[in-house]
Amino acid sequence: MVRMIRESFAVVEPHSEEVAKFFYGMLFSLSPATREMFPANMEVQRSRLLRALVHVVQMVDRPDDLIPFLRQLGRDHRKFGVINVHYEAVGTALLSAVKKFAGAAWTPKVEMAWAEAYTLMARAMQEAADADNGPAYWHATVLDHQRVSWDLAVVRLQPDHPVNYRAGQYVSVETPQRKRLWRYYSPANAPREDGVIEFHIRSVDGGWVSRSVVGHTQAGDTWRIGPPMGRLSVDRTAGQDILMVAGGTGVAPMHAIIDEMAQWGDNPRVHLFYGGRTREDLYDLDNLQRIATTNPWLTVVPVLESDPGVRGVEQGTLADVVTRYGAWEDRDVLVCGSPAMIRSTVSRMLVAGTPLDRIKYDPFTLD
């Protein structure tokens, strides 16, 4: 089953944009009520669908990783009002989309493999959603909006009830300025007793939500926050040293983990490579270096891609610099950044000899 799914998906993946358009067109035809769950502009949603599919196909032979991801996805989809009957329409639309673009690679056996895989996926998501008695989302009030630079803001929120996330996880958020446009962001702080959550949000080209948050969010705004997701975490009791690789605002979940670890005296060694194009992109560097001065287990290495005049930093891409140091085969590896940065870094590390089962990253952290 695994081989047939991967081989047929390899044929389909080059047509990813058309696949996503066909899938959503079919879904909305089969179940018109689902259209109201999504925004008018579907561009990001289509991209997110394909990233999820790629992630699932990569993990299809690793159920210990895949099932927790699907269960988190099922709990998260409760915020849309998804019910069990919708899963049938999604399955039909998905198989129809893959079949249309797989061409001659689509055979009765391949169809059976995809049908069996989707049945397992849907069951994991449904069971997790049905078993979760917590809220589908939380309301949170903006306490503070700090414009760090022209394209970056730090936003602090007070949820109406504690959001039970782990340091390193991410959540989906909806802002009042962009209804139904849910985006995923990682808290930049460890869970606090007062429940306050801090987000670091950079405005990106074409980013309807990020540009709105940076430019227009105000104290007193009410956001909605979805259930926590993601598998970036550190078990400080396991005795395993850590490598962190973060690009831009991908440093937020790393900062949250470091924030939590700094509350303890005994920790594994942590080596953080923090990268950007220019020195301005490393907006959190001073804070991280300040933490490192009082926590000898933490080493912070700044990396710049396009700012050769800056001293005291490594020059090059994160993929170049990290692998220049070696394979890191004895470390647990956490990677966060743009999809392109994650792809290039993970690929280069695998070539350098880093074991795949040592590397953790999440598919949705930056949209």
TrEMBL record:
PANTHER family: NADH OXIDOREDUCTASE HCR, PROTEIN RFBI. Its EC number is 1.14.12.17. It catalyses: 2 nitric oxide + NADH + 2 O2 = 2 nitrate + NAD(+) + H(+); 2 nitric oxide + NADPH + 2 O2 = 2 nitrate + NADP(+) + H(+). Its cofactor is heme b; FAD. It comes from Lentzea guizhouensis. This is nitric oxide dioxygenase. It is an enzyme of class 1 (oxidoreductase). The lineage of its organism: Bacteria, Bacillati, Actinomycetota, Actinomycetes, Pseudonocardiales. The keyword Transmembrane does not apply. Residues 1-130 form the Globin domain. GO terms for molecular function: 2 iron, 2 sulfur cluster binding; heme binding; nitric oxide dioxygenase NAD(P)H activity; oxygen binding; oxygen carrier activity. It holds the Pfam family NAD_binding_1. InterPro entries: Cbr1-like_FAD-bd_dom (IPR008333), FAD-bd_FR_type (IPR017927), Flavoprot_Pyr_Nucl_cyt_Rdtase (IPR001709), FNR_nucleotide-bd (IPR039261), Globin (IPR000971), Globin-like_sf (IPR009050), Globin/Proto (IPR012292), MRET (IPR050415). Residues 135-235 form the FAD-binding FR-type domain. Keywords: 2Fe-2S, Heme, Iron, Iron-sulfur, Metal-binding, NAD, NADP, Oxygen transport, Transport. Belongs to the globin family.
